[in-house]
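// run 5 | inverse folding | seed 20
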């Protein structure tokens, strides 16, 4: 009985630590598209890496749909990478490049954040 209780506590502890790991997504930028490694993340801390595989500079903006706050990365040069660490609440988020008319040309994506 005691062994089962200890095993249950260990399993619960491992599940909690797995849930506290940050979500990760890579956004590959090219002219004029974003390719994401995943479109669903868990709420909490997220590491969002922008990898610029294009020939032009690009940036990344992240906004929860319906909210006013915008997080983002500055300009990332061709061939470079940058990582944004941000806390995300459950909801739908818009990712886009804010340089010139890149968003209108297709550099945008929607990500769903779940509990």
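// decoded
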């Amino acid at each position: 009985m005691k062994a089962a209780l200890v095993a249950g506590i260990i399993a619960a502890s491992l599940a909690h630590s797995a849930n506290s790991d940050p979500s990760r997504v890579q956004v590959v930028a090219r002219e004029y598209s974003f390719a994401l490694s995943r479109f669903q993340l868990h709420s909490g801390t997220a590491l969002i890496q922008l990898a610029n595989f294009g020939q032009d500079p690009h940036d990344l903006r992240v906004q929860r749909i319906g909210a006013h706050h915008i997080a983002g990365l500055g300009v990332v040069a061709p061939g470079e990478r940058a990582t944004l660490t941000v806390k995300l609440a459950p909801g739908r988020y818009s990712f886009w490049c804010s340089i010139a008319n890149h968003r209108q040309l297709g550099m945008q994506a929607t990500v769903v954040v779940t509990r």
